[in-house]
Amino acid sequence: NYTITADFVAENGINIKVNYSGKPVMVNLNDNDETEPERPYTTLSADHTYNFPEETTYAAFHFGEYMKKGYDLWFITIMGTNSTYPDGYGDMFTAEFVVETGGARDKLPTGTYNVALEVKDHTMFPGIIDYAGNILFTWYGDLTPDAEGYSSQVAPIASGSVVIEEAEDGKYRFVFDLVDDAGNKITGDWTGNGEAIDLTTATPSAH
User: Fold this and answer.
1) Which of 70, 50, 73, 52 is closest to 61 using CA atoms?
2) In the chain, which end has fewer C-beta atoms inside a 10 angstrom radius, N or C?
3) What is the helix, strand, coil percentage profile of the chain, to 5?
């Protein structure tokens, strides 16, 4: 058993006290343990074609050799920027990927990215959930809120590829050919503007 006590004072001067004695519920729900939540994690029940909102942009962040020497780690999201309903909601894409070092750090690296759980050039990591229930790596999502105000349509990407290539007027084209952990195909084609930020320096650059 554990005994937990706390004594706080709020900004308005109200005193808040906590006293607990007992056995807290602690379980390991990591996806690398036999107690992991049962897959599939996806909420999709059929194949899906990406349908991004009209006002969509990408944001990509360069972390440098954060994971392994010789490979640069990047994080990217593609989602709507309008916060009003319904135009500001809709599909989103998020991923973490690695490329060999030596390329530009403030410009999105192009090429074909394969989804795999390995540190290899032009690789996107499959979607997982950490011990706290947070989604990590490559996921599909629909930001449209449900009746309780939450975004409940999500799917971890298990395999497939994403092609990133430069388009006209400084835009980038993304071609999605993905599969979630239940075998649903998630495909699509989107071209648009965005920003690539090098977090290893102090000054961001827009592209």
Assistant:
1) 73
2) N
3) 0, 50, 45
d(CA 95, CA 75): 6
Helices assigned H by DSSP within the chain: none
Evaluate whether 53 touches 88 at the Cβ level (below 8 Å): yes
| Residue in 123, 62, 58, 117 with CA at minimum distance from that of residue 92 | 58
What span, in angstroms and rounded, lies between the C-alpha atoms of 207 and 193? Answer: 7
pLDDT in tens, 146-160: 777 777 788 999 999
Token pair recorded at residue 79: 């989602």
pLDDT in the model for residue 27: 63
Sequence length of the chain is: 207
Contact 133, 154 (CB under 8 A): no
The strand pairing partners of 77, in sequence order, are: 59, 94
This prediction has a pTM of: 0.76
